[in-house]
Structures are given as structure tokens and as C-alpha cells.
Amino acid sequence: MRQTPIILVLLACVSLAGAITREPLHPTRIADTPPAIDGVLNDGVWRNAAEVDVFRTYTPDFGREVPQRTRTLMAYDAEHLYFAFRCDDDRPDLIKAAVTGRDNIRPDDWICINLDSFNDQQSLYAFYVNPHGIQMDSRYAANQEDFSVDLLWESGGTIDSSGYSIEVALPLKSLRFAGSDSVTMSVYFERRISRTSEQVAHPPMDPAKGFALVTQTAPMIYRGLEQPTLLEFIPAFTFSQRYQNRGGALGVQERLRDLSLTGKYGITTDLILDATYNPDFSQIEADAGQVDVNLRFGLFFPEKRPFFLEGSEIYTLGATAISDLDPVQSVVHTRTIVDPLAGVKLSGKLAAKSTLAVLYALDEIDPAETALHGTYASVPVLRFKQALRGDSYVGGIYAARETNAEHSRLFGVDAMQRVTEGSMLEMHALGSDTRDPHRSGIGKGHALGIRYAYGTRDLDLGLAVKDIAEGFSADIGYITRTGVRMYSGLIRPRWYPDSTIVQRVDFQLFSVQTHDRASSLWETYNALSAQVAWGGTMQTFVQYAIANEVFAGRRFRTDGFLIFVGGQWTRKLSGNMSYTDGKAIYYSADPFGGRGRRVTAQVIYQPTDNIEARASMTFSDLISDRDGSRVYEYPIMRGRLTYQVNRFLFFRGVVEYNRYRRQLLTDLLASFTYVPGTVVHFGYGSLYEKQEWRQDRFVESPVFHEMQRGLFFKMSYLWRV
Question: Looking at residue 9, what is its pLDDT?
């Protein structure tokens, strides 16, 4: 008799772990007038709406009651889901809430609606609102939360003498769900109390499951929801003009006037087609400066461009980006698509448990490189995921960048499997095929990874193995290193002292052993650390590492220590500082060891709810072991002042001084955002350097001279049917 393979039996057994049995919620159907979303709970619908009020902490500890009572009310009609929160507080003067821009409320008091619109434990929408009604939203999938998404929804909030109230309306057109007569979603409600850094939730989180969020939601049943046809267009106009200093005077370098069009069509309620032509992907604020010398691999800048952001969470693969030392940080990093002419995406559900995402972009190549690479690069990405029981899944991916004579193709599979209530097994197996006669010719390679993670209230454990071949390449991803085999382990016990000062202490031992194939040498990284939550809002982190690193066939010491202190000092003042000191490498054709230090500090001051001032500093240096000389010293200072007139309009000024590069950057921005997609931005920026024109060339100068200037204007309008 043919026997079932033992691995299939084991997978079937462990996939039963983590199955949730929770009483379903039944929001109240609105018979007549929907609530006004103003943060005042005087609408008739709330008097008889379904309600939950059992909230318990999960940060800094699990299962505790707090004096501040929280109630959540739930209602709906054919086109919207409605939620209201009543958050009691006997010290309303200590409620932290700023009138600020979207996605800037993490330090505040807030509530959050975590919505699994498919009830499949694969991903969540998260809708955050502070007591003034300011929004922040995100998508959560594969144990990672992406705050760059911007959805269209309504919120309102008011503060009164006994706390605050919030109302939220979620249009069905902004959600993806499985349309039917009876729709089951699931939800998890949160509230943050900033002055104590406590977070409470309903349903209460299970300490045995740790922070496995998507497995702890409560089902929520709706009947009679409409299945709307989604149709959106966003026409946009962009004007930019750049000036360059030539011969001691500024002259126009480039002037661009662009019209673009982005569209979205809902083929079904859970399958969406996006398309864009000549999109404007300009950023409305420059990336913050980073130390860009003595780098082993390139700097990482996050994606900020709207077309690429929606649905981006689906490209996250299991067992990637598990630590800062993981070479496979991302296999699809869309900022490698620099200047796209057009793009199209199809994303959503093919069946109840089958998710598809297809992206194609045509990227214009820099004119200076067209002779080598052609005019355009084609960038296709295909991703498929099949959900299993709970939050487990298996998936596949294909991503490539193709030109006339070159290609970089990546393909493979990944999976996440719930083993027990508090543990997960993740893996990926990837291959690559690269042809680039201008760099490295033809190459093939692989990247294999497997990770086991266990987490409960008292203990986190992690084990991982990575194998990345020397020939592995992913031009559309962010890969920091190849030709290594890595073994890593983590143990993190937690201690909850009976103290009014210290709330929690996390101890951690993290170890990575790496074999470098090119040199056949081993390197090691072993770090012991402690993180302390104290004083209600403060965090302290201390770490010491015994380590070395292989570079250019040699092994160098990289021991060192790190100290971090930060938090909310008062309602108006917060900040943090970190200091790193240890052995380091100077990465060059003739590398050598040295002592490196790095200091970062930031202070945030909010004198009123509408004004925010930030000052930050980064300092890095390297002192050579050869002769004690200072190889470089790299300080960056940055200041930012924002005046938020109301939730729609703000004015911002940024000044950044890079002493290493002898550059001063100024950036001014006026921004009006009615809803995501309906915006008006006007920006002005200048770059000053300590150079001046003498006779026929630039020479060093003791004072700054303007070398570049830029003007930027963008206007777009979201039209939704």
C-alpha cells in the first residue's frame, strides 16, 4: 500500500496549530441616517450599536487592566463600515495629540483598527487615529508592517474633560474583500496611552502566542454589503525647474512640464487593476542625509512613490530581512526602477486562498548610458501566494530587469508555516540568472534560507540558516552580500519587575557565524544586550559585541559596544541619542583596521499642537590602526520646522549641513492634501557649497555659495466613481 510521505503528515498536523476559536462580532446595521464623522458621539446610531469594552494590555506586559476605560462601537450600512471609540482619561491635560500631517502620529495617544478584510490571517489593514482625528494607515503581512500605504477613509476626533472620542468611516471601495451575501472579516482593536507607553487591545492578546497579531483577531460578520465597482482616475500636473552654477552664476539646467494619469479599476471587490502613464515620482521632501563614505554596500532608501506602494507588502518573502546582518533584505525593491515611463499592476484574490500580484514597468535609461544599455529597461514582477490554515502560506516569485543586451532574473519559492501557537517556520529557495557583458558576463546563483521563530510573553527564540552563492544577483532587489553561508541564533528572555520605575527588561544573546566562500575564512558576530523600558515612556538599550569580519580575503576585528537612550521626556519634548564605539574596517583595495565611532541624536519639541521642531545630528569617524591618523570625520546636522495649519495644510522648512562634503541644503515646502491623491505641493530648495569661481574653475572658499537650486510644483486630483 502506498504510504503518505511523513513530511506531509507533519505539515498537516502543525498547520492545525494556532487555529482561533473566538466569538464572532455582529456590528449593527444602520436603518436610516449614518453618523457624522466629527468625533462627537451624539448620533442616534451609537445609542444601540454593538459594543466591546474588554481591553487588556500587551505592552509593556500582557493581560493587565488600566484605569482608562475603552469602548468600541461598531455599525455599518451598504457602503461603509463605521467604528466609534470612547477613550476615558481622568487626566485629559496629559493626552498627547498633535495637529500634524498624515502618518506622523506614532508618538501620540491613538486608537487602531486592525482589519483582516478576508478573514484569512494573511494580512491586515491598520487604521490609526489620534484624538484630533489625524490619520495613519499601514498594511501588515509576513510579520512586517508597511506604513507607506495611503488609503481613502474618514475620521474625526475630539478631546473633552473626561477623555476623547473618535469616529471612523471605512468606504468599501477602499477595502478589498470577498463579496457575498454574508461577509466575514476579522478585527483587532488597539489603544495607546502615550504617557505610560501602554497599549491595550480587544480581543486581549494571548501571552502564549506572543505578538502573532494576525492569528488573534476576532471574526466580524456583515450581511447585505454592496459590491461596489471601483473606478478611480488621478490626473496630475508637475512642473520642475533646476538651476546649476556655471562660471559663478546660476543658470537653468533643466525645465520639465509633465502631465500624468493614474487609474484604478476593480475587476471584482478583491481583484484590482492599476495603470499609470508618465507618472510623477518626485519626492516632496529630500531624503535625510546619511553617511555615504566607507560603505561595504550601497545605502538603502525607502520607497515613497504611490504607484509602487499599494500592494507592496505581498512581495515580502519568508525568512528575509531577519536582522541587519541578513544579506537578503528584499528581492523586490522598487526604487531600483528609477524613471518609469509607464506601469501596470494586477493584484488581489484569484480564489478565497489564492493571491496574485503582477507588476510591469518600463523604465527609461539615463541618456548617458543608452549606448551601452538601450533606451528602456523592462521590469516584470510576478508573485503568487496560496494561503494554508491560519497565517501559513506557500508562494512563488519571478522578478527581472531586462534590456537589449542584459538581464537579471530572479525566481523561486517561499513559505511560512505555523508550527505551534507561538512558533513559525519560514523559508525561501531562490535562483538567479544574470547576463551583463559590461560588468560580470553570465552568472547563475542561488539563495536559500530557513528560519524558526518562537515568541511568547516571556521568551523569544530564533534559529536561521542562510546560503547565498557568489553568483546570486537581484538587480531589482536589495542584496548586501553574496558568497556566504550563515548560521544564526537568538534567545531573548523578558523580565517584568515589580517596580514603579522599570516596566520591563529584555535580555538578548544574538550570534551569527558566517563562512566566506571566496577566502574560506569564518567570521563571527556575538552580541549580548539588554533593553529596559522605564519611567513610563523611556527606553534604554545597551549592547556589547565580540565580532570579526572578512573583507578582501582578510579577517578584521569589529568588536564594539552600543548605548541608546530615548523617549518622551514631557508632553512637548522628546528625543533620543545613541553612541557606538568599536573596531572597524576601512573598505578599499588596500583595507586596514581602525577604531570607528558613531553618534546620532534627535530632539523633537512641540510647543503647540500645530508646531513641531526637530533637530538631529549624525557623526561618524575612523582612526587608523596603522599610524593613529584620522581617516575621515563625517558630521551631518539637520533641522526641520513644521507648521500644520490644519489636517490638510502645512508649511515646512528643512536645513541640513554636511560638514564632510562642505554642503548646506535648504528645502522649503507648502503642502495641501485634501485626501490621498488630491494634493497641491510647492517646493523650493537650494544646495550651497564652500566653492567659488575664480578665473576658469571652482576653488575652495571660506563661505558658502549657491551651486544648485530647484523649484517644484505638483497638483493632482482623485476622481472616484
Answer: 36
